[in-house]
Each structure stands twice: as structure tokens, then as C-alpha cells.
Design a protein that fits this description.
This protein is an alpha/beta fold and about 325 residues long. The protein contains 11 helices and 11 strands. The N and C termini lie far apart (about 55 Å). Bound molecules: 6-O-phosphono-beta-D-fructofuranose. GO terms for molecular function: 6-phosphofructokinase activity; AMP binding; ATP binding; diphosphate-fructose-6-phosphate 1-phosphotransferase activity; fructose-6-phosphate binding; identical protein binding; metal ion binding; monosaccharide binding.
Length: about 325
Amino acid sequence: MRIGILTSGGDCPGINATIRGVCKTAIHHYGMEVLGIHSGFQGLLDKDVEVFTDKSLSGLLNQGGTVLGTSREKPFKKKGVPADVNKPALIQQHIRELGIDCVVCIGGNGTQKTAAKFAAMGVNIVSVPKTIDNDIWGTDSSFGFDTAVTIATDAIDRLHSTASSHKRVMVIEVMGHKAGWIALYSGMAGGGDVILLPEIPYKLENIRETIMNRIKRGKPYSIVVVAEGIQTDGNRRAAEFIAQEIERETGLETRETVLGYIQRGGSPTPFDRNLSTRMGGHATELIANGEYGRMITLVGSEISSIPLEEVAGKLKLVTEEHDLVVQGRRMGVCFG
Ligand code: F6P
């Protein structure tokens, strides 16, 4: 049996560990052949592949990024594609010509949607959820999230000392796309005083009150953690908007930091390495059992899988009832 493996969408820590988990299990345990597909679905359009051997997998466990390269190619998007070009059919033909019995897709929400469409066309496909944003429906966690939260928490810790020395308000913007998971987890782990999430509407007067009350209680500085996806005036990015509004409302010296791609780069945490290894191994096991059209999940502490059509098009968002939000509120954190 021959499998092909690709990584699609934005990169994140743990992809290489997942590739290693899939391929080592395939080669050592099941005696399968593995083709690495370069640059996501673009590699299937171009037939840009390499044969993976045990040697290709050396040093991958702790390496950031993806050795396969990635792209945001969406083969089912019709916009800008000439009417006589049928990318999905071309990819299906190339998969056949390359002798690939099943494709393993490592990707985020967009990739799960694409994988579900290929599965519906009858292509043998298994996918692994990947994103720092943790917004993929059906899995408690995706690898990359723990690493991003660790990096963001470290940044918040570092902002505390400079905020306190200068008696400033420090606003830090973290990633997450439309979801507030990174902001919630790093904000709570880093002891943020205000944590703003796209899922919870905020009022500037509540933020002002929280900061001014801290001053009254002898705490002349504040840490404000904002998710990139919060509502702004549409002209300024989240950190800039909130920092300027806080300064205007309170008259306090306020600074902003946008953490950016640092959250996505570098080595995965031990938790993410093990999650990647387990998810990758389970993906290969599904293939060996002929169970296609499924996405690997982590539910509680169990690695399992669900049909791709159940995942496609859904987002997992933070809710008011999440225990970190409830506990944060009890401890005086302002969520808006
Ligand atoms: O999905 C991961 C993510 O890093 C988001 O948090 C962020 O909004 C987006 O990707 C950035 O994407 P790009 O790599 O296209 O700038």
C-alpha cells in the first residue's frame, strides 16, 4: 500500500512531528510506502512529490514549520479558474497516476472542508487537525495550540515586569483568527486583568472601570490581552484600537504589542509533540483498517476520529460557560 501525505494552510508547531508519526508508523509497523507531497494541494496539481524513507524522517520531532512546505491552494474554489480547468478531477487523476491509495491531509478548517469534498468524490482521505487557533470542531485540541499558548504566556509574563516598572497599561494582541482560545488560555495563564475575545462583546467603560479600580487598590499597572479577531472600528488592528481607546478613556500611559508570527514559529512543546505523534499514528492505523473519510480527534484523553462531513464548515468557539471564563470572572478578570 502507498500513502501520500501533505500539509495545507498556515504552518504551526507539531506538523513535522505529525508527519513523522504518520510515516514511521506506516513504514515500520505496516510496511507501507510513503510519498511526501510538496506545498499542499498544489503539489497534487503539479505531481510534486518525493519518496519518504526512514532517513527523510530524521530530526523532525522537534522541528518547527513543515518540511513538506505548505500552500493555501483551495482546489474547489472556482473564482479565477478558467472554465475548462477542473482542479479536483485533475488531482483525483494525479492521485491515481501516482499510485496513491490514500492521502493524509494535515490542515486547519479550510483543509478539513477540502478533504470532506474529496472524500465525497470517492477519494480515500484521512485528515489530521492542525492549528494554533484551536478552532476545529470535533476535537478538544489541535496540535500547535499548546505551543502558541506557551509562547503567548511567556510574552505576557515579560510584559508584567515592564508594565509594573513604568506604571503603564500594556495591551498585547494574540492570534486566533475568529476564535478567542489563545487569548483566553494565555490571558488566564499570564494573569491578564482584561481579556477580550471575539466571542464576548465588550464595553470600553467596563475596561476603564477595571483599570481604574486596580489603581484604587494600589495596582498602578494593567495587562490587557486581546484576540486579533475582536470587534474594532475596522480601521485599526485590535491592539492599536484598544490601546488608543484606553489611553483616551483613562489618560494612562498605554503601550501595545502585537505578538504575531512568533506564536506559530519554532519547536513544539512536549504536549504538542506527543499529541502530534499520537494523532499521526492513529491516522495510519485508520488507513490500515480501510477507514477513510475521517478526521482524527482528541476527546478527553482519547485519540479517536469522526467523519469529515461532520466537521466541515463548523467552527469551535469559546462560550460564556467555559470554566476558564467563569473562573476568570469570579476572580475579577474583565472580559468586557
Ligand atoms: O490560522 C492560524 C493563523 O496564524 C491565525 O491565527 C492567523 O489569523 C492567520 O493564521 C494568519 O494567516 P497568514 O499566514 O495567512 O498571515
